[in-house]
Structures are given as structure tokens and as C-alpha cells.
Amino acid sequence: xxxxxxxxGLVQPGGSLRLSCAASGFTFSTYAMSWxxxxxxxxxxxxxxITSGDGSTNRADSxxxxxxxxxxxxxxxxxxxxxxxxxEDTAVYYCYARRGWREYWGQGTQVTVSS
Length: 115
What we know:
The protein is globular and about 40 Å long. About 0% of the residues lie in helices and about 55% in strands. A hairpin with a 4-residue loop joins strand 7 (about 65-70) and strand 8 (about 75-80). Strands 2, 4, 5, 6, 9, 10 and 11 form a 7-stranded mixed β-sheet that branches. Strands 1-3-8-7 form a 4-stranded antiparallel β-sheet, with no helix packed on it. By secondary structure, it is mostly beta strands.
């Protein structure tokens, strides 16, 4: 099983990034997918999630209107579109897959928002 995140990097405040998480080794379409993040000195927190069935999504309140999660089951990939980035969005972003008791984490990708 692998979850491989990509798309992180350095961006200026107000900028945008799109993170991708490519999954392999399990039946991607049957798993709920989420993005979490962990900022410096902070606990890991949920950013956004998307279900396996109807693709319903949820986001943390602080990210509503700025971040959008989506998935492409044909490509076994989940995305996180991040707009209007702020310095406080600086964190390592992790991809997470869950179905019942089965859960998998990616290795994370660094996002740094700074001028």
C-alpha cells in the first residue's frame, strides 16, 4: 500500500497550490480519503475529507471557501486545491485513507507560505 503526496512547495501569501495523492495497493474507490496537516509545534488536524460513495465533502471551518478536496477514482488520486494561502497554512500535509478499521497514511508534503 502506498499513498504518495506531491505538489507542495513554497508559495507567497495569497497564492495557490494543488496537492495530489496517488494511491496504490488497495481499492481506492472504496476508501474515504482525507487531507490532514501538521504545522510547526502543532497537533495534526483535519483539513478536508471526501467519502467513497457519493463523494460528499467536509472541510475544517478555517478552510471553507479556500480549500477544495476532490477525487478521481479512475486515476486513484485525491486532490487538495488550496487558494488564498496564508502563512498559518504552513504545514506538512498528509494524505489519509480509511475504510472500516483499515487506515493508511502518506509520508507528507511540505507547504510553506511565506513572502
